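quick one before i forget lol
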Amino acid sequence: MSPNKPPQSSGRRDPNKNLAEDARGILTILINNGATVHDLGTPAFKLRAGDDQYGIIKAVREEAARVTEVKIASLENKIPDSNPIPENLKLETSLDALKNSIQKFESRFHRNTTLHPGCNWNKVQSSLKKNPKFLWSIHQMEINGHEPDVFHFDDHGFDIGTCSLEVPKTHTLCVYDQEAEDYLKQYYPDAKFNGNAIQILKTMGARPMTEDQYKENLQNKGVLFDQESECWLLADRSSIKSGTALVGGRTLNSIWIGSCERFKRNPDRGCRGTLRVPWQ
């Protein structure tokens, strides 16, 4: 390279810098449109599932739409899939088995209207047909006893989750995540347990419910879930660092949320999964 010729840019930009610039731009829009500190502190803006950069971008974008009715379309492709299905899984299943699971899902949807009052089945069905991977996830949840159903919806999409009255027995006695499972195997090799909640749900294309989803969107609909069981909930980074995770359940008419060491297992504790489907 000639010493008198400046180096040429490769044309690549740091993705983290791009995300930071996008966030800064959206926050500027918020401020210019009268957003206050109170607006940015609303529950809709708080991240209960972690503080990763993609989550921050998504939360800022949603708050921008709520406060200023501004749609930031340029961020659509920068938010990763919230329901990843592991690439090494075989998604093939028989058409008859899939059809049977979807029929059960539809029947449950119409039967349990208290979980999703006002939700339109035709709109749900249309969105699922355009996203076949979600049909596969519903099938996996169905054959594993999770009784999937829609338990929340908004202007952007709907949440399908484990809606069995108690957590499936096939997925109880599990620890929280892979790190907890490895810990048990190393220090308590004779311990009996049934895998870990994160991996169990991941193999169905789902993840654990957040505290808000569990308390407000599932348990607050008049249906008495988990009277005899409890479930792992999605832990934030601070909990993970401290070695704990959230657990939820019900005692009579009270819904409780507590913390538990991630490697602890209980024959009555399992997992409830959820996956987000965008309207199509």
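fyi The beta strands are 148-153, 157-162, 207-208, 230-233, 244-251, 254-261, 269-271, 273-278.
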